[in-house]
Amino acid sequence: MKLDKIISVLDAEILCIVKNKLNSDITKACGADLMSDVLAFVQPDTLLLTGLTTPQVVYTAENAGVNVVCFVRGKKPHKETVDLAKEKKITLLVTKIPMFESCGILYKNGLMGYSEISKQ
Amino acid sequence: MRDNVITLKPDDTMNDVRRILRDNKISGIPVVDDDRLVGIVTIDDFIICLLEDGGINEKIENRMTKNVVTVYSDDPIVQVVCKFDRDGYGRFPVIDRDTKKLVGIITKGNIIEGLLKKLEIDYHEEEIHRYRASHIFEDVISDNSTLILKYRIKGGDFKKAGEQTSKIRKNLLRLGFLPETIRRVAIAAFEAEMNIVIYTPEGELVAKIQPDKITVNAIDSGPGISDVKQAMRQGYSTAPDWVRELGFGAGMGLPNIKNYSDEMKIKSKVGNGTNLQFIVYKEGKSSK
In A, which residues are within 8 Å of B235 by CB distance? Predict the structure, then answer.
């Protein structure tokens, strides 16, 4: 699913974006508020949905190889988190839609979870 | 290109040309009638008009070049560069392909400026660092070269928790390690850094880098771990709630470090702090 499609189905606002990435393809997503969980099982090039807005989300994304993070339920991070994301070249989005529904919308639109990808 | 172009109208005079050339230190001005480009007047046209009686009061439309060579705003830069080379002009007015209106002006200077900026920002600096650093192990002659990098970590400083791992990560990239190797080191180091920030007053990360492996020691002066075996169990945690609210402290840290590294050791004594060591081999011992 193209990033611009994700932005439109979640009606998301772009907080910062890496140049020319709107057209990039994202095939998998995960929703988590526990960063250790993200570090434990997330594969590179995943979209991360989270309700956590600390700078550690950006560090987690950087270390786990996550390029796009979407904050759910309208939670906007502080400027320092956004600045850090710009520096680390990580795209940040925010949607007003809550976590469960955000995941559902993306799933319905064709994004897959890991258990299905591993079956393929 | 430059937008916000300074323009003149066909019935302005050559006197206006003088004023604009002087005030703006430019060498050519597009002449526009109702947003449409109708000509261009340059410093050459001005010099010629000075040589003729009354030339300075003449209308621009009698003096300007009418068949102007232009480029479209969506033309590739390469094509514009070729055009400069072929036609020998100093500037091209830029026209919108659909509306045919003047939208900007481009000079050779604009192109060079743009290219330099792009080189500088996107590429140059990091590429040079990477090039220099990636040869370090080849350039240094020895039977065994080791690079040791130390990073101090302040306990409780959540704003900066993760910063030191980020530096280690950047260095490993510059040294030319593979992304998967770097990912494993970075995830393990990040968890170790978080542990120091969460549980201890201070500590350090020491990364010992060799061509074939990376050894990281996370050393702290904290309370120590009373039962290492229990601490290694997934889900076991002594973290207070505020740590959990930050997305950590769910008893995943040490198991994560173990999973992503090839070897892991913990030396800890209650009251004497902890020394956690993990090793990641370049070729990878585990399948992770």
Answer: none
